[in-house]
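User: Hi! I have a protein structure encoded as tokens and I'd like to know what sequence might fold into it. I'm fairly new to this, so please keep things simple.
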């Protein structure tokens, strides 16, 4: 049979490739972003509790009401504005389903979606699946901040959406209140949607505050915001995310969500609703990761890798140009196989696959894991 591929240039994601390579070669996996420490036993007990209580059938399509209420409470506490829990919140199968359902619902063939470059690898294929085009705007070379003039220069009458991501995967950069004002000015009076990927909203360092687009009335009227309990509660395998968007936009997105995943694991939704009642369960996440980042940087201090400061996420970029002038993909494969530490080569996140000799390290790991990896890396 001839298969007419809808994504002829897409292979397996780099995260699956590097995790397999790490497993095959017994390497320490600092590549794919997932924690290697346990989920809170209290949260696991709640899931178990609700499963034993019989909460094992379909949840309501947008999510169980108690979880949507808990999300509304958290949003109000964090960003000073409360979404309507019936109409403006939908629980999704991880943030990636949220992004998929949103783009499928709102983007037509021939549309243009502005993304930052580098960007998380899933955005462009999802846009392309709609017959639409991802228009990359280069982030600044020095600190991965957004050049709003460059964004403005890419806006055409085909621009239907601007995607932003803060804290930013892979760079760890964050947006500021000024960035929100720039975004307001650029989109005010237009029909441009904003899809804001905020899955690392609870992982910011050194006292910085997360600048959610939900803080701005102007922006939230045109924005779809996605977040992730997988990231916040170190349970990436549970696939628990959610969306916040205005009623009219959300109605369109739910039309897709209902025929995509339909609903999300029922007992886990009830369990997370209980767990969110104690704000310290999400407010303690940033200091925990800051300690890990600092521990890892400290252990790497004597290495030839040069860290690029990260303000959020659980990723740390490192420049390896003082060690090797091989391409980053080749270098990360060599490091996995010969040194025993897997990472992600940064070039995969660029539209033109530019190689700046930078690797992404995930530090969402126990101190023993980070220390063992750093010892190997310092020998290079
Ligand atoms: N978000 C994770 C990362 O950036 C990967 C998720 C996945 O493997 N699809 O590493």
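Assistant: Happy to help. Inverse folding works backwards from shape to sequence: for each of the 380 positions I chose a residue that suits the local structure. Here it is:
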């Amino acid at each position: 049979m001839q298969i007419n591929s809808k994504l002829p240039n897409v292979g397996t994601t780099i995260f699956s490739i590097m995790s397999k390579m790490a497993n095959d070669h017994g390497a320490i996996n600092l590549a794919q972003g997932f924690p290697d420490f346990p989920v809170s036993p209290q949260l696991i007990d709640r899931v178990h509790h609700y499963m034993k209580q019989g909460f094992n059938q379909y949840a309501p399509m947008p999510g169980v009401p108690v979880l949507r209420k808990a999300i509304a409470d958290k949003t109000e506490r964090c960003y000073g504005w409360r979404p309507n829990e019936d109409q403006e919140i939908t629980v999704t199968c991880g943030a990636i389903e949220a992004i998929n359902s949103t783009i499928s619902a709102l983007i037509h063939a021939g549309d243009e979606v502005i993304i930052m470059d580098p960007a998380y690898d899933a955005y462009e294929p999802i846009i392309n699946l709609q017959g639409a085009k991802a228009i990359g705007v280069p982030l600044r070379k020095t600190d991965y901040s957004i050049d709003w003039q460059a964004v403005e220069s890419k806006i055409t009458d085909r621009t239907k959406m601007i995607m932003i991501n803060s804290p930013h995967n892979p760079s760890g950069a964050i947006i500021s209140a000024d960035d929100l004002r720039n975004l307001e000015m650029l989109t005010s009076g237009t029909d441009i949607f904003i899809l804001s990927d905020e899955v690392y909203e609870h992982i910011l360092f050194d006292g910085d505050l997360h600048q959610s687009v939900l803080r701005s009335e102007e922006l939230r009227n045109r924005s779809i915001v996605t977040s992730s309990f997988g990231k916040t509660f170190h349970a990436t395998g549970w696939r628990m995310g959610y969306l916040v968007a205005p009623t009219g936009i959300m109605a369109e997105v739910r039309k897709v969500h209902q025929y995509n995943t339909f609903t999300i694991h029922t007992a886990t939704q009830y369990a997370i609703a209980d767990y969110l009642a104690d704000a310290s369960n999400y407010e303690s996440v940033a200091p925990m990761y800051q300690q890990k980042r600092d521990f890892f940087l400290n252990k790497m201090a004597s290495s030839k890798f040069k860290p690029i400061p990260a303000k959020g996420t659980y990723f740390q970029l490192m420049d390896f140009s003082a060690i090797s002038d091989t391409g980053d993909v080749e270098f990360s494969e060599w490091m996995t196989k010969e040194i025993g530490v897997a990472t992600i080569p940064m070039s995969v996140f660029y539209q033109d696959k530019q190689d700046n000799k930078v690797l992404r390290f995930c530090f969402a790991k126990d101190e023993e894991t980070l220390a063992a990896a750093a010892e190997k890396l310092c020998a290079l």
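A useful reference point when you look it over: The mean pLDDT is 98. Feel free to ask if any position seems puzzling.
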